[in-house]
């Protein structure tokens, strides 16, 4: 093999290694860092609210457009996105919306957001989420960590995933591009150490 050919092969190999490194730092590293940062989020109930038993939280104390908390999903680079009460278009234009018919903290928390065309397109990358991804829901009542167990395309009139549940879970709903009558539904269950969700 001629020296010129060996040199060319070496240059190609170096270029491929460099390209792989660039792709990792451009795509994978931000997700890796977001997950590492999320490890510092303190999970648990707010002990300052001992006078308000969490199972007795009254939905009536939350009013239209009140600030509920924030949502963090490291795998799709969503960090402390604001959540407000209501899924009216005026609310969804700027924040994630909370379905008033669902739980605030204990039980099934239902949230909705746009995924394009608005300032409030917080779920633009929700289609990239995977089974096993972690979701952090931070409120005045405390912070819960959930693990994604369901990712499905559903009919826009299908409200089954927003029904009350005995366990703690979070349900995220957004539109599906090009399918006006469909919705992407992601449901995650509160995670405990040692739980396995098929990762």
Compact summary:
With 199 residues, the protein is of the alpha+beta class. It has helices at residues 3-38, 89-92; strands at 44-45, 67-73, 78-85, 96-98, 108-112, 134-139, 142-155, 169-176, 179-190. The protein is built from two helices and nine strands.
Describe the structure.
The chain is of the alpha+beta class and 199 residues long. The protein has two domains: 1-40; 45-190, Sortase, Chain: A (Beta Barrel). The protein is built from two helices and nine strands; from the N terminus they run H-E-E-E-H-E-E-E-E-E-E. Strands 2-3-4-5-8-9-7-6 form an eight-stranded mixed beta barrel. The longest helix is centred in the first third of the chain and has 36 residues, at 3-38. It is elongated. Residues 194-199 have low confidence and may be disordered.
Number of H/I helices: 2
| Total tally of structural domains | 2
The level of helicity is: 10-25%
Distance between the termini: 47 Å
Largest sheet: 8 strands, mixed, barrel
Q: Would you state the CATH class of the largest domain?
A: Mainly Beta
Total beta strand runs: 9
- According to CATH, the fold-level topology of the largest domain is Sortase, Chain: A
Uncertain segments: 194-199
Which structural class matches the secondary elements? Answer: alpha+beta
Oligomer: single chain
The strand line-up of the biggest sheet is 2-3-4-5-8-9-7-6
* Beta-strand content estimate: 25-35%
Shape: elongated
Q: Quick one: CATH superfamily of the largest domain?
A: Sortase
Mean pLDDT: 85
- By CATH, the architecture of the largest domain is named Beta Barrel
What letter string, H or E per element, gives the SSE order? HEEEHEEEEEE
Gyration radius, in Å: 21 Å
